[in-house]
User: What shape does this take?
Amino acid sequence: MKLMIWIGITIGGIVGGGIGSLLDHGNMLGAWSIILGAVGSLAGIWLGIKLDNLI
Assistant: This one.
């Protein structure tokens, strides 16, 4: 269970931060990058739990 959650956090945070970076013109430490990275991590936690329940 922990592995799926960690994978979800990692991938969700990277994808969310990358999208936020695009919105902030390449600034990885901008507000959008941090906010969307956090949202992506939370979504990754949720998805990791759902995937773990399927397996």
About this structure: The chain has one domain: 2-54.
